[in-house]
Amino acid sequence: MIGYIPGNGYSDNFSNLPDIPLYPYEFSCSGAKSSLLDCTQSTSNCYYSYYYYYGDYAGATCREPCINGSVRIAGSGYETVGRVEVCINGDWGTVCRDSFDDNDATVVCRQLGYSVYGVVSDIPYWRFYDRSVPILLFDLNCTGTEDMIMNCPYIERGSYTCSQYYDAAVICQTNITQYIDLTCTDGDIRLVGGTNDLEGRVEMCYNNFWGQVCDDSWSNYDAQAVCRQLGFLTQGAVSFAGSFFGNGPSPHIVSKIGCSGTESSVLSCSNDFVDAALYCGDGAVAGVVCTDNCENGAVRLAGSNTGATNVGRVEICVDNIWTTLCDQSWGHEDAQVVCRQLGFSSLGALPTYNCLTEGQLSFGITDLNCTGNEYHLLNCSHSNAVLQNCPSYGDASVICQRNPQQANCTSGEVRLVGGSTEYDGRVEICINQVWGSICSYSWDNREASIVLISEEK
After folding, report:
1. Does the keyword Ribosomal protein apply (predicted)?
2. Which of 133, 231, 277, 308 has the fewest CB atoms within 10 Å of its CB?
């Protein structure tokens, strides 16, 4: 009567439309009628019955007519994610999930005008299943090159049954060519946006398409699997969430990675492609920092978020693995040796404590006791980390000076500079024969009184 395909009838009180009059007619239609008034009518007792007060308005669910062989994605509210529905003889129905694979999904995405790369068909059976929609196609067997799924071999509804009795579903990608890579294989991993090859946001290749990994449930175990797959050390692998290495332009490809840390491929860990497509947005990209093999005794500074190369957590290579230093006995003489070994001046070397503790690397040596004259840290007196415990302490860190001016002063000595008298001015302190100023953060009269006492001495 109104141009749609027949659907289902139902009753409801339509409480959101309280002023609609109720016509007390019952209709009995048979055959193809163009109007309800052409059907047999009788007077109903709606006004006097129980049903009048609790919902006896007639309702109908109609369906739009479809073109035979048309395909659509439904069930998620998103155009590129959901169960596959196909029009057969004017009716919409689903595709049996039994034999549905990436080749079939590729044809679906192509027919809908989306990219044939980055297609996902391995979707949990329960995500978009709708028992009210009949399964119309069985045993779909596309090669992946067809333009329409009706050009693929299939079996229509009949005696054939769907053993799992669930609907095939798909994730398509929009046509964004810069993420296509015909040389990568499913599960390949790369790190992007870091300062070196050992760090960055995590991207995965799936069906020749690079997508970002969502940080939902991202952990150090996942980071270990990433680093192992890339050929780096797993010890000290650190996970980062919240797009620490920035948001990439490509869409999220996978989420909820769940590794134990022993896997050789991240794709072999538990995962969720659907959640990545539906719920991951900007600010939710997983990141990783890996470690590599090193030369025994080498020293480096790490952990500075400013990019400064003269500031950082002290890491030392022990048995060809990067480790940290316990700051329990960390002092000025130790800091001098680190700065000298790194090519900076030993003058003004400032030890800092628990500023950049990262919590993943083990302590390589403990009980460090340098004189300040050594050229390499391992030349200093130290203990084996296994023999010397370091409870409740953090990682040692240091600030090295680039072009310090040597002064005839001793560490801890203070002076006032730039004031109108000898009793006021900018506070400077001597650290390893170099004068430097003091940050005013949290500075108050208590610290100032200590300076005056020092000056009086």
Report:
1. no
2. 231
Two structure tokens written together for 136: 């119309």
Distances, alpha carbon 387 to alpha carbons 244, 316, 366, 383, in Å:
37, 18, 9, 7
Cβ atoms of residues 268 and 220 within 8 Å: no
The phi-psi region of residue 425 (left if phi > 0; otherwise alpha if psi is between -120 and 50; otherwise beta) is: left
Q: What is the band of 412 on the pLDDT scale with cuts at 50, 70, 90?
A: confident
Distances (CA, A) of 390 to 371, 378, 393: 21, 18, 6
- Domains of the chain, earliest start first: 5-63 (no CATH), 71-175 (3.10.250.10), 179-291 (3.10.250.10), 299-401 (3.10.250.10), 414-456 (no CATH)
Residue 321, SS3 per DSSP:
strand
| Dist. CA 60–CA 454, nearest whole Å | 91
Q: Are 93 and 86 in contact (CB under 8 A)?
A: yes
CA angle 442, 443, 445 (to 5 degrees): 130
State the pTM of this model: 0.65
* Helices and strands (DSSP H and E) totals, the chain: 6, 28
Kind and range of the H or E element at 79? none
Going 132 to 137 to 143 to 144, the CA torsion angle's sign is: negative
At residue 266, the 3 state secondary structure works out as helix
Q: What is the DSSP letter of 283?
A: T
Question: How many Å separate Cα 186 from the centre of its chain?
Answer: 18
How many Å apart are CA 231 and CA 290, to the nearest integer? 10
Cα 307 to chain center, whole Å?
24
Residue 245, Cβ density class (10 Å: 0-12 exposed, 13-18 middle, ≥19 buried): buried
- How many CB atoms lie under 10 A from the CB of residue 274? 20
Structure token digits, residue 21: 């009059």
Query: Which tens digits make up the pLDDT trace of 155-173?
Result: 887 656 776 558 999 999 9
